[in-house]
Write a structure and sequence with these properties.
The complex is a heterotrimer of chains A (87), B (975) and C (180). Chain A has 87 residues and is mainly β. In chain A, 10% of the residues lie in helices and 38% in strands. Chain A has one helix and six strands, in the order E-E-E-H-E-E-E. The radius of gyration of chain A is 14 Å and the shape is globular.
Chain lengths: 87, 975, 180
């Protein structure tokens, strides 16, 4: 498996650390309430198909990236820096 | 036997080898199989289950029968296919699965039992009693059934792993693959041409076809030479592309050393090849026909029989017969007649068959019986003119050819049934960016393959936006294939499908009868296709039999799943380089050499190696050393390398705000040249890590992390700064490796440091939790007055190049002052005495509240984990919280991991009040003590609890107390 | 009066010649990690250019010969072989002792690296002046191409022994193939 780092180009999957769904980019406010926080921390979709998830180019440039890919076909559509991404 | 003047290696040098101790002669360029056949050795192995005598079936990696063991003892390599093993001088091969000898194998008695050993036999027979499976049945079956074995000893052979990258990977170097590689290479692309054979050319090496007016093998050699001369082409012979994976990644196994007598250098190399496009030109595999007793040595596939003659000059028999359902197999008869070997007849199941040369043809014929215990002697043929027995010692059979579609199925693709060739062909697009050409694509004539190789590659060039290459199609034969299906022949006797796993037509029918009608169920019930050859010879025929037995067509019956690897890959190759010290990188402190030369046993801390203790003469156990080191630090001074702790340099206008956000307590109030303890939460409110952070100057901090969590914290800081708070202008980088850092602890710590500092320090200039720069013989170091032992202590850091030297100075000075170096055991005891936590306590399920640090979670600001740490369940007094444990009984044992119960309660899970996380013997206090988590702990000081450790069979009464056992006011550290 | 003696990360391990590969330690010179603050990259680059003649490198690039600037990650570069000028717009962090640096020369260098890194080091893809953060074995590393058959590999200082061991093993495997 290879992932397209926006800075380094296509790289082997073993250079990356996998985190999870990119929804964690949208962090609730401190006073958002337990429901919002529980949802943020624990509830995830389990898509068969397109997904956006977070990877850290840990053995590379150190960038956190959002990868747009497909869990069924394994196709990788692209990636962007988490710094610039929206949940 | 050899045929004079035949074979591509006709002039090969003579080589000596042994098989089962018997010495033979072969010649350079032979495979072991070719050399055995040249010596008339037809019996080469025993089958897996019935121990049936078996011979060489094929001439390639699909071989099910001719598996041998090479090498001795630790270096023994089992299950080597004689059909791919290149001969070298002095090669020693042994047969497998036979005792006492290949010819007289006592386990052949299994064959007589075969009526009772049919498909599903194990499932039906070895069900009861249940306990017998592990103790009785399995060992017996394992001994009786099997392949070669490993020695059980450590093998120090070298294997390697490597990566390769290219634009186009061509898999297979037959006519299609050669033209594909030429076409891509001439267009200027980076090409890798991989072929599992030692010599490239594919079937051109095994046939007598001409290409471009010259012998096919010569033509192939010329093209390979041209490719080899091109800078943008990499030829990879002896390399099997074994798997296709995501984003153009392929696994391949290269046999590097198996063909050499000299065992230095790697045996195999496991490649990961990354390619924009791949072109599969893997050819086709011939399938046997399931007729009665079709497994006798001497019965081979027709193409293989031709290979032995044309490539190696070997006639596998003196009177050859052919049994086929297609025109292609007739070439075997023609080639043998041409070589002057008797062809006793061609039996063709088709009524429409025509003789292509001067040999007896039995139209509409079938082989209904065979004879010969250790090798074929005759066959019985039933044909339109009657029945007759024909003397023959080599029967070349062909049920047609199956395109080698395996790799196209590695990403869940399914092949498509073709009624033109009565086999499966690849389904387009099964593997992204993989094209298929030649016989693998169902194109069987030589000209067709050459043309398909070019055309397919030209289409790839268009896709890649590369100008078409100038390639002419060579002239070659273009004979039609002409096949009519023939899967099985009725008659008395077993009709073998999977030779290696001993699966017959009857087994498949039984599976269908017992309602294992799904192809996947049939496979598992009969073990069809589950041997090391993965059913390369037999799967399609087995499907046809299942389809027939269930009254369905073959396409409806479907296929099982082809998974990687295409052919076996040794675990040693995949794990290359990972034996022993290669398992993981070793991080060594600058004090490592000095430490090990003092005899300190090292323990792993993540990738780091740290000393357990520094033994001195007269000390018999680790505890002796540990007790002495603790007493030494508390009484004088000790030195400990703490360089392994993570150190992160943090700078920027918003550095303080960033620290406030990642730590639950406040750092923006930290003054310059001061250090503060910090607690870091995860976003879910649980503790991630702790450490100290020092303010070195305006907007400049250095954070320390625990050794274990250094990587995790760095990743977390990257996450917070990039994804959550890109608004904060802060930059940071690891300086763990830049600084060698040593803890100097004990009442004499300052005295020791003053012996090496350029300028003396005192309590006023360096109070508790101060930090700053110091000079050591002109080298600028950093000094932090912090303590993990509770003693008056410092950590001194110098650039790592001076680490070894400083450690030497510090320990020498310490020893002169009645102290010395101390290790992890003493460090652990001292931190438990002080109630300081480590990851034994902050193990991922504890909160700041649980460890008594709830008030550190500042409510004046947001931080990671702030709101979630206030959630209702996380502040419940009934949560298990940190306490100390001290003994009531003088010799009561205290064990880590034990659970706590109230007196009188049953020691069962539901009654557990908590658990012990850290224990030690405190030489300072003279008894054991421990840290534990206990429900409502802080309100239960003075209560008695029973500690129960079911694993170690320990029950002890303990008293709950405050977790700080020593110097609760912290006066020592400030002194 | 004490005297502190400096030790290089690969002291006692290098140099070595194995087959067609030379392994030499690049002695730790001055190394400063420079990370420009928000919006400061251009200004920092100009200041560097002014002071030392090298600019702040683009991602995956290394510039300069005497004083060199090697990109080592998002928004970070190492200034090597020169004192870091006073850069107001950047975090400047001394890493002179943080790295074990090995130079690999010889015709088999690409083949040796191909045994250790998933990075595509083909001449056409990874040219002189290209650098990358990637893996060498299981170690995070920085690889820079210095010439046709010349690379510089950097790993954490504490892993110097493992780096040398892995390079040796790969070079020995290549040498064994050459004699086969």
């Amino acid at each position: 498996m290879r992932l397209p780092c926006p800075l380094c180009g296509d790289r082997d999957r073993r250079e990356f650390f996998y985190q999870g769904a990119a929804v964690t980019l949208d962090r609730p406010a401190r006073d958002a309430g337990d429901a919002a926080w529980n949802d943020y921390l624990h509830n995830r979709d389990n898509p068969a198909g397109e997904t956006r998830d977070l990877w850290h180019h840990e053995a590379g440039c150190g960038a956190w990236i959002v990868v747009h890919r497909n869990t069924v076909t394994h196709e990788v559509y692209g990636a962007e820096l988490a710094q610039k991404a929206k949940a | 036997m050899r045929v004079q003047g035949k074979g591509l290696n006709a002039n090969g040098a003579p080589l000596t080898f042994t098989f089962d101790g018997q010495e033979y002669q072969g010649r350079e360029g032979d495979t072991l199989a070719a050399a055995l056949l040249a010596n008339g050795q037809r019996l080469v192995g025993r089958s897996f289950k019935y121990h049936r005598p078996r011979g060489i079936l094929s001439a390639g990696s699909e071989e099910p029968n001719a598996l041998v063991t090479l090498g001795e003892a630790a270096k023994q390599d089992p299950n080597i296919r004689a059909t791919t093993q290149e001969l070298f001088d002095g090669l020693e091969a042994r047969s497998q699965n036979a005792w006492p000898s290949l010819k007289n194998d006592v386990m052949a008695v299994n064959d007589l039992m075969s009526p009772f050993l049919s498909a599903g036999f194990y499932y039906k027979t070895f069900m009861w009693p249940k306990a017998f499976w592990e103790k009785v049945y399995e060992p017996i079956i394992r001994r009786a059934a099997g392949l070669g074995a490993l020695s059980g000893e450590t093998n120090d052979d070298t294997y390697e792993k490597a990566f390769a990258h290219c634009d186009v990977l061509v898999i297979g170097a037959g006519p299609a693959g050669i033209m594909a590689a030429l076409t891509a290479a001439r267009a200027g692309l980076d090409v890798i041409l991989a072929d599992e054979d030692s010599r490239m050319g594919g079937r051109l090496l095994a046939e007598t076809y001409d290409v471009d007016g010259q012998a096919g093998a010569d033509w192939a050699t010329q093209q390979i030479a041209e490719l080899n001369a091109m800078e943008n082409v990499r030829l990879m012979p002896r390399t099997t592309v074994a798997g296709a994976y995501d984003q153009g990644t392929y696994a391949a196994l290269e046999r590097v050393g198996h063909h050499r007598a000299d065992r230095t250098g790697p045996r195999e190399c496991f490649w990961r090849i990354v390619s924009k496009r791949s072109i599969l030109c893997a050819g086709a595999l011939e399938r046997p026909i399931a007729f009665p007793n079709n497994d006798r040595p001497g019965i081979m596939t027709a193409g293989a029989v031709r290979s032995y003659l044309n490539r190696w000059g070997v006639a596998p028999g003196q009177a050859v017969t052919v049994f086929a359902n297609n025109d292609d197999a007739h070439r075997t008869a023609l080639d043998f007649i041409d070589a002057g070997v008797t062809v006793a007849g061609v039996i063709d199941s088709r009524d429409s068959a025509h003789a292509l040369g001067d040999y007896p043809l039995f139209k509409g014929g079938q082989v209904i019986a065979t004879k010969g215990r250790h090798g074929l002697t005759s066959i019985t043929v039933e044909h339109s003119g009657g029945t007759e027995e024909i003397a023959t010692d080599c029967l070349a059979m062909s049920g047609g050819w199956n395109p080698t579609v395996h790799l196209t199925c590695h990403m869940n693709g399914r092949p498509t049934w073709s009624d033109n060739i009565f086999s499966f062909v690849p389904t387009e697009g099964s593997v992204p960016n993989m094209s298929v050409a030649g016989a693998a694509n169902g194109v069987f004539s030589t000209l067709g393959c050459l043309q398909d190789g070019i055309d397919t590659t030209q289409r790839v060039l268009v896709d890649l936006g590369v100008d078409a290459a100038d390639v002419e199609t060579p002239s070659a034969e273009d004979a039609p294939y002409r096949i009519e299906p023939l899967w099985q022949v009725e008659g008395k006797g077993r009709k073998w499908l999977d030779f290696q796993n001993d699966v017959t037509v009857k087994d498949i029918r039984l599976a269908a009868l017992e309602n294992f009608r799904s192809v996947e169920h049939m496979k598992r019930y009969t073990t069809q296709g589950m041997a090391t050859d993965q059913g390369k010879n037999s799967n399609v025929a087995a499907l046809a039999v299942l389809a027939d037995a269930t009254g369905r067509g073959i396409p409806e019956t479907g296929t099982t799943t082809f998974r990687p690897p295409y052919s076996p890959v040794a675990i040693a190759a995949m794990g290359a380089g990972s034996q022993g010290h290669g398992f993981a990188p070793e991080r060594l402190m600058t004090s490592h050499h000095a430490t090990t030369s003092r005899g300190a046993p090292m323990i792993e801390a993540g990738l780091w190696y740290r000393p357990s203790y520094f033994p001195r003469s007269g000390e018999e156990t680790w505890l002796d050393s540990c007790n002495r080191e603790v007493t030494m630090v508390r009484g004088a001074v000790g030195v400990c390398d703490v360089s392994t702790l993570g150190k992160i340099d943090i700078q920027g206008p918003d550095a303080a705000a960033f620290l406030d956000f990642v730590y639950c307590n406040t750092f923006s109030t930290l003054k310059e040249k001061r250090v503060r303890y910090g607690l870091m939460l995860r976003e879910d409110g649980h503790v991630m890590d702790d450490g100290t952070t020092a303010c070195l100057g305006p907007n400049h901090y250095v954070m320390t992390t625990t050794t274990a969590a250094a990587g995790q914290v760095m990743r977390h800081l990257d996450w917070v700064s990039q994804a959550l708070r890109p608004d904060l202008d802060v930059r940071f980088a690891s300086v763990t490796e830049q600084w060698a850092q040593f803890a100097v602890a004990g009442p004499k710590s300052r005295d020791l440091l003053n012996t090496i500092f350029d300028d003396e320090i005192d309590n006023d200039s360096w109070p508790f939790m101060a930090c700053g720069t110091v000079g050591i013989s002109g080298v600028q170091g950093r000094l932090f007055r912090i303590s993990f032992s509770g003693e008056h202590a410092y950590e001194i850091a110098v650039p790592a190049r001076y680490g070894a030297s400083l450690f030497g100075q510090l320990t020498a000075q310490a020893e002169a002052m009645g102290g010395g170096a101390y290790g992890m055991e003493a460090l652990n005891v001292m931190r438990i005495e002080k109630g300081f936590i480590t990851h034994a306590e902050i193990h991922g399920r504890t909160t700041a509240f649980d460890i008594g640090f709830d008030r550190m979670v500042s409510q004046k600001k947001d931080c990671i984990g702030n709101a979630p740490s206030r959630r209702e369940g996380l502040l419940d007094p009934q949560r298990e919280q940190l306490v100390g444990l001290k003994p009531i009984e003088a010799d009561g044992k205290l064990t880590s991991g034990a659970h706590l119960f109230v007196e009188g309660a049953d020691a069962v899970r539901l009654n557990s009040q908590g658990y012990v996380t850290s224990v030690c013997y405190s030489p300072t206090l003279g008894h054991d003590l421990g840290l534990a988590f206990l429900k409502d702990g802080p309100n239960r000081y003075g209560e008695h609890v029973i500690l129960v450790d079911h694993l170690r069979d320990v029950r002890t009464l303990y008293e709950v107390c405050h977790p700080v056992f020593l110097d609760p006011e912290g006066e020592l550290a400030r002194g | 009066m004490v005297k502190l003696i400096a030790k290089s990360p690969c002291m006692g391990l290098l140099p070595k010649t194995i087959g067609a590969v030379d392994l030499t330690e690049v002695e730790p010179a001055l190394i400063t990690l420079i990370a420009p603050f928000a919006g400061q990259t251009k200004a920092v680059s100009a200041a560097l250019k002014d002071a030392l003649g090298v600019s702040f490198p683009a991602p995956n690039r290394a510039v300069g010969t005497g004083a060199r600037a090697v990109w080592v990650g998002m928004g970070q570069a190492l200034l090597m072989g020169a004192n870091c000028p006073d850069l107001k717009g950047a975090a400047c962090i001394d890493q002179s002792d943080a790295w074990a640096i090995v130079r690999i020369d010889g015709v088999d260098t690409s083949a040796v690296l191909a045994r250790l890194t998933p990075l595509d080091v083909r001449d056409s893809q990874f040219k002189r002046g290209h650098t990358a953060r990637t893996l060498v074995g299981h170690m995070t590393a920085s690889i820079t191409r210095l010439g046709v058959h010349s690379f510089e590999v950097m790993v954490m200082r504490s892993m110097a022994g493992t780096l040398v061991h892995e390079l040796e093993q790969a070079a020995e495997n290549m040498a064994a193939r050459a004699t086969a």
